[in-house]
Write a structure and sequence with these properties.
Layout lengths: L10 H15 L5 H5 L4 H12 L9 H17 L16 H6 L4 E3 L5 E3 L13
Antiparallel strand pairs: 1-2
Helix pairs in contact: 1-3, 3-4
Length: 127
């Protein structure tokens, strides 16, 4: 896979990645919010740096900013409960959590989208 798709195994690499994303994201978000574990901004930054299967390079500034904004929206509206339609996870069991990024969501008209926080371009997320 391309270098940007390698998993983040090493704590030092993850810390450097988190720092890089923080430096970029303070241009559009309050630094205190990015560092406070109780905020959607923190959840979004952490997700982009360590969980997002796209593993964007922090140098891809516009893409990171756009994805961050959409992740903040998701985490702002899904704080206590997962979304019932096309949220991050399909349900409470482990099998659905492992496969959620490959599941699509369809509108009644048949238009198909991907789940929020899935490993596809955020423009293809449901909604």
């Amino acid at each position: 896979p391309p270098a940007s798709m390698n998993s983040i195994d090493d704590d030092e690499d993850l810390n450097l990645r988190m720092e890089s994303f923080t430096k970029l994201l303070i241009t559009i978000s309050n630094e205190d919010d990015l560092l406070d574990p109780s905020t959607p901004q923190y959840a979004a930054r952490t997700w982009i740096a360590s969980e997002d299967s796209m593993q964007l390079d922090p140098k891809e500034e516009q893409l990171v900013r756009q994805r961050f904004i959409m992740a903040v929206f998701y985490f702002s509206t899904a704080r206590d409960n997962e979304w019932k339609i096309c949220g991050k996870h399909l349900g409470d069991d482990d099998n659905s959590r492992e496969s959620f990024q490959f599941q699509n969501c369809a509108r009644p008209d048949g238009t198909v989208f991907s789940r929020h926080l899935s490993g596809v371009d955020e423009c293809d997320w449901y909604g």
